[in-house]
Amino acid sequence: MIERSLRFTVAVLALIGAGIAGYLTYTHFNGTAPVCLNGGGCEVVQNSRWSKVFHIPVALLGLLAYLSIVATTLIRHPLAKEAGATMAVTALGFNAYLLYVQAYDIGRYCTWCVSNEIVSALLAPVALAWLLWRPKDVPA
Amino acid sequence: MKRDDLVRILAVVGGAIVLVVALVVAVRLGHHTNKPSASNIQLDSVNEMLSGIPQKGITLGSPKAKLTLVEFADPQCPACGDFSRSTFPSLVQGFVRTGKLRIEYRGLDFVGGDSVRLLRLAQAAGLQNKLWNVVELEYENQGSENSGYATDSLLRGLANAVPELDVNKVMATWNTNVVVPNMDAAQKLADQSFKKLYTPSFLLGPTGAKPTKTIVGDQPLQDFVDAINAELKK
Predict the structure, then answer these.
(1) Among partner residues A54, A85, A107, which is closest to B26 by beta-carbon distance?
(2) Which of A73, A84, B59, B74 is most buried, by the most CB atoms less than 10 A from its CB?
(3) What is the ipTM of this complex?
(4) Whether residue B9 has pLDDT greater than 90
(5) H-helix or E-strand spanning residue A73
(6) For the structural domain made of B31-233, what CATH number should be given?
(7) What predicted TM-score, i.e. pTM, was given to this entire model?
(8) H-assigned helices in A55-135
(9) Which residue of B has its CA nearest to A83?
């Protein structure tokens, strides 16, 4: 029951993250500015040099990572949990870097990006708990 | 915590650290090369960024724009390159494309010989109202200072990467005296405006009037946004 709840929570958080990253990916390729709660911060961040990795939008990488995490909750493979947790912790670390960039390099915040950073901060510990959880009477 | 769990945690966190470091390095260095070559001109989205925005000589943006930002920069200066790649696109998108701001490029060549060649090419493109495409491509493909990277081949490659630019005409004029007056004028204006010049430096003010604000260095985008918004409210 607990394992299912953890798996479900990981999937839901990853889907929320995928939704946010998907929206930012859509606006990137559509050439439109994201709807932003704090003026033009989202547009500034989206157009900055840090928004791409080798010409690939960071938002697209995020979308793929979140969808991969969702996939790990659906497949029954011995390494699925490890893969999901690794991607979740990677997302947390990289999002922390992106938050630093917004604060110190760009000087503006993108509310969508910060929301994504909050999602990844919630997702990583849940994914680790899911990785480590096992029933008390089941040997390691 | 059991040993098995500890190993799993270490494997996951270790793998994540490696991936994060790789991503950060890729973001920092990914599209910037220190060995630009004519066969590998990095375009990023320079032409797309400038597409449809009026250019005339050294200016970018509508002549009716309320404000003018004058940029003093050397094509080889790394901080100028950082400004160009990180801050400039947002200013174009937010203020130039919307008709509020026009930007003048006052190119300087104090870093060395490569600067002279790059600046001459930009000024020659300016005769066809394509200076900004060349300038931004030069920053996108910026090499190590005074390494001799601004070869004839690279200059032609940069010119070739600009849409609707008569490359042969540019290559015939870049090394002639035609481009000298704009270069001299930039240096003269820099000498008049700054006791000691750091690049990039900027003058901001109403179009056609005396500048009212000075910005020195590759300051965060927010500083430019705040200064421009303050001037727009006047």
Answers:
(1) A54
(2) A84
(3) 0.84
(4) no
(5) helix A58-74
(6) 3.40.30.10
(7) 0.59
(8) 58-74, 80-100, 111-132
(9) B12
